[in-house]
Each structure stands twice: as structure tokens, then as C-alpha cells.
Specification:
Helix Hairpins, Monooxygenase, 73% helix, 0% strand, chaperone, HscB_oligo_C
């Protein structure tokens, strides 16, 4: 049975760090899910079946957390004693916030352009480029894991959340345009 005291990285037999080998994660996920699958515990005691179900839930939660760059960053910050408060915490980078306003205006104006899909595609490419840059920075910050680097990773996490929301909004507008055809 699973050791419920392990952190998500230990559970999957992965080194603790921001960069995760997606293939290893998927392989370990399948192996772990097989080990706690309810069919294996059909003739087990009620307690063993309950532990199997709890193990399955833990494995799914750990997998979702480790495969998503934002959730993984949050989890690493938590492992380092830094909790996030979404209601009050945000980036303090004024330049970044101004850029976000400009990108949002560009997204809203896309509908009025002769080729709105091209504008949205370019915007999403820029957003993806920025997210990838932040992922690279955060990998280094979590590797160093000094208080200063963890603070910088936290700031980059806020920025990544803004960019992810912008990408979602761009995809929504693109879907609206598709529906209007």
C-alpha cells in the first residue's frame, strides 16, 4: 500500500524540483494507479478498500499537481514553507502589469481586425513564449531555493497566472469567433 506521508515527488519516485520528466511521471502514475486499483481490492477488507480509494485520490491529486507548471510551483513553494493567498497576493511588477493591460487591449481589439485569428495567434504565441521564459527562470530559482530565489519564484508564479488567464481569454475569443461563423 502507499505511504501517505511521502510528498508528491517521493510518491512518484522523482527528484524534488521544478523540472519534471513527463514520461517518468506518466509511467509512475500508471504503475501507482495499478497498485491501488479497486479491482485488486474487491475481496479485501472494508479498510483496505477505503485505503485503496484514498490512495487513488492521492495519486490523481499528485499527478495533476506535478504535471501542471503552476500547480507544481505552488506545491514547491508550499514544501519550502511559503503559502499563497490568491485573494491578496499578486505581482508587484508595475511594468509587467502595464504590459498585461496592453496585451488585453490588443486582445479586445482583435475582434475588429481584418484577420482576428492572426492577431490572436500572434498574441498566444507571445504569451506562450513568456510562460516558457518564466518556466526556465523558475527551474533555476527552485534549484537554488534560497529565500531570495523562492521569493522570485513566487513573483514569477503570479506572472504565470496572469499569462495563463490571458491565454484562456484568447482561446475563448477564438472559440466565440468560430461559433459566429
Amino acid at each position: 500500500m502507499l505511504d501517505f506521508s511521502k510528498n508528491y515527488f517521493e510518491l512518484f519516485g522523482l527528484p524534488v524540483g521544478y523540472i519534471v520528466d513527463a514520461n517518468q511521471l506518466a509511467t509512475h502514475y500508471r504503475e501507482l494507479q495499478k497498485s491501488v486499483h479497486p479491482d485488486r481490492f474487491a475481496n479485501a477488507t472494508e479498510q483496505e478498500r477505503r485505503l485503496s480509494m484514498q490512495g487513488s485520490v492521492l495519486i490523481n491529486e499528485a499527478h495533476e499537481t506535478l504535471k501542471d507548471p503552476i500547480m507544481r510551483a505552488r506545491y514547491l513553494l508550499k514544501l519550502n514553507g511559503i503559502d499563497m493567498d490568491d485573494r491578496q497576493d499578486t505581482t508587484h511588477d508595475a511594468v509587467f502589469l502595464m504590459e498585461q493591460l496592453e496585451l488585453r487591449e490588443e486582445l479586445e481589439d482583435a475582434r475588429k481586425k481584418p484577420d482576428p485569428y492572426a492577431v490572436i495567434s500572434d498574441l498566444m504565441a507571445e504569451v506562450n513564449r513568456r510562460i516558457n521564459t518564466l518556466i526556465g527562470q523558475m527551474a533555476l530559482q527552485f534549484e537554488a531555493a534560497t529565500p531570495e530565489q523562492l521569493s522570485a519564484a513566487r513573483e514569477n508564479l503570479f506572472k504565470m497566472q496572469f499569462l495563463k488567464k490571458l491565454r484562456f481569454d484568447a482561446e475563448s475569443i477564438e472559440a466565440e469567433l468560430d461559433d459566429a461563423l
